[in-house]
Write a structure and sequence with these properties.
Radius of gyration of chain B: 30 Å
Strand order of the largest sheet of chain A: 2-1-3-4
Strand order of the largest sheet of chain B: 2-1-3-4
Distance between the termini of chain B: 30 Å
Number of domains of chain B: 2
Distance between the termini of chain A: 33 Å
Oligomer: heterodimer
Order of helices and strands of chain B: HHEHEHEHEHHEHHHHHHHH
Strand content of chain A: 5-15%
Number of helices of chain A: 17
Chain lengths: ~400, ~400
């Protein structure tokens, strides 16, 4: 350290000073390494077990016939639902749903079997809870897969009873079969998809707030600002020397997260890995300069950090991973447009699960390039103005 | 009691005079109340744009496309000549699905053969995939059934019999709560609880780390154990009561006012909701005291809590079902007041559960209050004892 103190002012002096700060200030180290790694671990642990399967549902079987039992068996056999108990009346089932003991209630009416074969079309009713969105949709998917299958069996047997050959009957009951192909993400695995989107979202908040803090420490007082400028031999090299250690650190965090995702969790990487890395660098830079700009504009560290938090902490919802941006109102859509994370996640989805052809991959990346250029220009402009005012006031 | 009152008065005064605290507890709470719900206010995803690749070009194929376009979930945005062209549009995100109607679609149907159609749906966004698949499945079933019925009628079967033969056992799904399946209705009740927790935790953390918190003078002379213990308990109790008083209005706004303004159905009574919110607010306040003791600096609290909100949300077992989490994670999650509070408050407010229905969560929250407040008292006690040991006074100052 002694030797470096005597080094000529410039970019590298500020760079090394920043690294020394990182060593001496536990808070900075916590923000750039401990918290990102800790949160990654936590999120991975939360999602590690995969999507819930065999969610418990109850059955109210008022018929007790061969048919009603086969419906129950079919519902129990889907991967989504498990028929775990019988209830004696509707209110009991409703109560169990409210208490979250069961996730759905299947009601088979009295005389189900007799009425089905008499052509009276009795209804099979399934009660479920959409207040818990994901779980509600899952149990509905299970019931929705099981019951039409049983009904199809009945329809075939009604036709074969009339003397129609089985194959002909099978064809006749679905005149327009629909084959659904999942483009991309063909295993419909949302666990890794969600995880791959959550980690950059967490990082976005961390980078913006940490930079607001780190830069804020240097610009809060005129004296510190002058020191930074002297060490850097000019404000622009000083600023870049200040930013670079964090760029490296945060990119390493993103790299570790991606290594885990692609190596161990085997998330598909169908696109161009170099494009993915390039987008990652742009994303981290854009977030860094948003934080730096907030610090330069607001001067007070605490205020800069508060505003940075306010802008980025609720950002996940605006990036359209859970609820798509397509369904959002104008304000939310526009705000999402202003977040680097929105574009980075687009580029990320393009280069991971979609495998988008190169000529269609550029839009989100060019937008990120635009972000970085505009933000760097604003930062430089702000620094230039601050230099002007501080020199003007200097004796 | 006068001691508790003194702490209470001092803490209330600081809450409103320290700018960082006011800006988190009041200003941030107000901003988030408007800002956070924005993405979800349209409630449902409607009219997901898809393309139709119609290789048949007959009246029936056009009828099929029209029926798909008429569903609320999907809109036919483009008619394209082939699948590769359409797939490029999917890559460019101008459409999210492709409905392929093959050649001879109509002819096969008329001749009584099966006539399959195909949907290529972008599965990288879960909700969109679900919408497209649901809508096109429903249309193909409805149209198919009408063909099946008319075929049977053509064979001389009576209409009611034909209808019974095509749909002998109708399946009726009945959503008990949030019947429209609205996204805001699903996410906001939980998210609002979490925002309350975040703002209060940061606010109390800042109060505990900014100067001026000691309303009861920290004596420098040697004190009796009993006095120290009494002072510590009074300090913690006074502070918690102060937070409760200030939060009363904010909690009521968040749990009753905002859901009302955003049109989220509420089945539970106001009194039950507020009764449940009481241990939640106290538990968060007590946890905030511990956060302050652990992180010690106002900036550290602001920075650490900035990024932690999103993982907390996933821990709560709402966005991601608790059933799907490893057991160890579920136990860690229970240490956060938000986990039990979201379960309980959603049950009470949206599902109309009574306090006895959610007594597990209710008692759990009181347990958290007892544990966190107990630890806070011990921390306060240790600080006071250290301060009253003369040798350490100089070291600390």
């Amino acid at each position: 350290m002694q030797r470096r103190d005597r080094e000529r002012p410039g970019f590298s002096l500020v760079f090394w000073r920043e690294l020394a700060w990182l060593r001496r200030r536990p808070l900075l180290l916590m923000l750039t390494a401990v918290i990102p790694l800790g949160l990654m671990l936590l999120l991975t642990a939360i999602l590690s077990a995969g999507l819930a399967t065999r969610l418990p549902i109850a059955v109210l079987d008022l018929d007790g016939s061969e048919l009603s039992r086969s419906v129950i068996r079919a519902v129990d056999a889907t991967p989504d639902t498990a028929a775990v108990l019988h209830v004696a009346e509707l209110s009991e089932g409703r109560h169990l749903i409210v208490a979250r003991k069961i996730r759905g209630l299947l009601m088979l009416p009295r005389n189900l079997e007799r009425d089905v074969f008499a052509g009276r079309r009795p209804e099979v009713v399934f009660f479920y809870n959409t207040q818990t969105f994901t779980v509600g949709n899952l149990v509905l998917r299970g019931a929705n897969a099981a019951i039409p299958t049983v009904a199809a069996g009945i329809r075939i047997s009604l036709r074969t009873a009339e003397g129609q050959p089985v194959e002909e009957a099978q064809a006749a009951i679905t005149p327009i079969p629909l084959q659904t192909h999942a483009l991309f993400n063909s295993t419909l695995n949302y666990v890794h998809f969600l995880l791959a989107a959550l980690l950059p979202a967490v990082l976005q908040t961390l980078v913006v707030t940490t930079m607001a803090y780190a830069v804020g420490l240097d610009v809060e007082t005129r004296h510190r600002f002058a020191v930074l400028r002297r060490l850097g031999g000019g404000l622009v090299p000083a600023m870049f020397g200040k930013m670079l250690p964090y760029t490296i650190l945060f990119l390493s965090m993103l790299g570790i997260a991606d290594a885990v995702l692609f190596r161990f969790l085997e998330l598909p990487l169908r696109g161009d890995p170099s494009l993915l890395v390039f987008a990652g660098v742009l994303f981290v830079l854009a977030c860094q300069f948003i934080g730096a700009l907030l610090a330069l504009l607001l001067r007070q560290v605490a205020v800069a950090v508060s505003i940075a938090t306010l802008l980025t902490a609720p950002a996940f919802g605006f990036m359209g991973i859970g609820f798509p941006r397509l369904g959002m109102n104008q304000f939310a859509y526009g705000y999402g447009e202003l977040l680097p994370g929105t574009w980075y996640l687009m580029a990320r989805i393009d280069q991971t699960i979609r495998g988008t052809p190169l000529d269609l991959s550029w839009k989100p990346i060019l937008v990120l390039v635009g972000f970085v250029i505009v933000l760097i220009s604003f930062t430089a402009l702000r620094i230039w103005k601050m230099r002007g005012s501080s020199e003007g006031r200097a004796p | 009691m006068t001691m508790v009152l003194a702490v209470f008065r001092n803490e209330i005064g600081r809450l409103f005079s320290l700018r960082p605290v006011v800006s988190v507890v009041v200003v941030a709470a107000a901003v988030y109340a408007v800002f956070y719900p924005q993405p979800y206010l349209n409630e449902a995803l409607r009219k997901v744009p898809i393309a139709v690749v119609d290789q048949d070009r007959t009246q029936t194929s056009r009828e099929l496309a029209r029926l798909v376009d008429a569903t609320p979930d999907v809109a036919v945005a483009q008619v394209l000549p082939d699948v590769p062209t359409a797939q490029r549009e999917v890559y460019a995100r101008s459409i999210f699905g492709i409905l392929l109607i093959p050649r001879h679609f109509e002819r096969d149907l008329m001749h009584g053969r099966t006539s399959p159609i195909a949907l290529y749906a972008d599965a990288s966004y879960f909700l969109m995939y679900q919408r497209m698949n649901g809508a096109v499945t429903a249309v193909s079933r409805t149209l198919g059934t009408s063909f099946e019925v008319s075929r049977l009628v053509g064979l001389g079967v009576d209409l009611p019999v034909a209808e019974a033969a095509t749909d002998p056992m109708p399946f009726i799904p009945v959503p008990l709560f949030n019947p429209q399946g609205g996204y805001a209705t699903y996410i906001l009740p939980a998210a609002l609880v979490l925002i309350l927790q975040q703002t209060l935790l940061i606010g109390v953390g800042l109060l505990g780390t900014l100067p001026g918190g000691a309303a009861i003078a920290v004596g420098t002379s040697r004190r009796r154990f009993g006095d120290l213990a009494y002072e510590s308990i009074a300090t913690v109790a006074g502070k918690l009561l102060a937070y409760l008083a200030v939060e009363a209005l904010i909690v009521a706004t968040y749990l009753i006012g905002l859901p009302y303004l955003y049109g989220i159905p509420r089945l539970g009574s106001v009194a039950t909701i507020l009764a449940f919110a009481l241990p939640f607010t106290l538990a968060v306040g007590a946890l905030g005291l511990l956060v302050a003791a652990a992180l010690r600096k106002p900036l550290a609290i602001q920075l650490v809590f900035a990024a932690i909100g999103l993982p907390f949300f996933f821990l709560a077992g709402f966005a991601w079902p608790a059933e799907a989490m490893p057991l160890a994670v579920r136990w860690v999650a229970k240490l956060l007041p938000s986990t039990l509070a979201i379960d309980g408050l959603v049950d009470v407010a949206q599902l109309g559960a009574s306090l006895s229905d959610v007594r597990g969560e209710f008692l759990g929250l009181w347990l958290l209050v007892a544990v966190y407040a107990g630890i806070a008292v011990v921390v306060e006690f240790n600080n006071r004892r250290r301060a009253s040991t003369p040798a350490l006074v100089r070291g600390a100052s």
